[in-house]
Amino acid sequence: MAGIGHDAPVPHASDSTTMTTVTFGERFFASWYPSFMARVERAGQADVRGAQLALAHGRTLEIGAGNGLSVPHYPDELDELVLLEPNPALRARLAARTDTPAAPVTIVDGDAHHLDFPDASFDTVTASLVFCSVRDPAQALSEVHRVLRPGGVFLFHEHVRGTGVRATFQDLLTPMQRRLADGCHANRDFESLLGTTDFHIEDIEHTRMPTWMPTIVPLVVGTARRG
Ligand SMILES: C[S@@+](CC[C@H](N)C(=O)[O-])C[C@H]1O[C@@H](n2cnc3c(N)ncnc32)[C@H](O)[C@@H]1O
User: What H or E segment, with its residue span, contains residue 62?
Assistant: First the structure.
């Protein structure tokens, strides 16, 4: 792995995107999310990413890569790592990372609802803290399934709806959270949705994000396989 940093361009990453307009919500989110999450990563979230992303193999796509918190955790042995991120302000941070794996890295603009890749073109697709934000999670899951080859794995890592008082609290605060965090819903039941798809859930851990923000504490981390 190369050293961690945000100042220099990634020598072996290519950014195939053209500059697109950044909205106020995207720019605002990009202004606070990286430093907020840096504390969460130091508190233990980085270990969760590291353990899970060691399972990535072959040609790998990450959807909603953000500022690249998962990037340093991918194996060097991947055939290729494609990082898809629609927010131009976060994509610029992604392109500035130097802690990428040795594998070829490509950064692309795009939308999880309509992935611009052929059917069965990836061995692994990953998503971390993304299905809270997409407009139509079922459509995005169907696209993940489509671009995975049969037998390919989907590595997910999502904050989800809790139970009891926490769930009520999440319902109440979701409208505000959506405004402050570029569309992030605190109360999505990702596991139930995944259960309605053609994915086979091989492994799922119910855990907690190490953060003081109670709406995003319940976490599911796991592996689903395309049959
Ligand atoms: C909470 S951030 C998570 C970023 C990163 N995955 C992480 O673990 O830190 C949510 C990400 O999902 C992205 N996103 C939102 N809607 C999307 C869509 N329709 N397609 C792809 N990514 C999307 C956002 O731009 C943002 O980078």
Answer: strand 59-63
For residue 151, the tally of other CB atoms under 10 A from its CB is: 10
Q: How far apart are CA 166 and CA 175, in angstroms?
A: 15
Across residues 185-212, what is the average pLDDT?
Answer: 97
Q: What pTM does this model have? A: 0.92
Q: CB of 99 within 8 A of CB of 2? A: yes
Listed in sequence order, the residues at least 6 apart from 225 whose beta carbon sits closer than 8 Å to its beta carbon are 151, 152, 153, 154, 199, 200, 202
Ligand 1 site residues (CB inside 6 A) read 37, 63-66, 69-70, 85-87, 90, 111-113, 128-130, 133-134, 184
pLDDT digits (tens, 9 = 90+) for 55-68: 999 999 999 999 99
Handedness of CA 158, 26, 38, 166 (dihedral sign): negative
Task: Please compute the mean of the pLDDT values over residues 154-160 and round it to a whole number.
Answer: 98
178 vs 184: CA distance, rounded Å: 5
Query: How far does the centroid of ligand 1 lie from the alpha carbon of residue 41, in Å?
Result: 16
Cα 72 to Cα 49: distance, rounded to the nearest angstrom = 9
CB atoms within 10 A of CB 7: 7
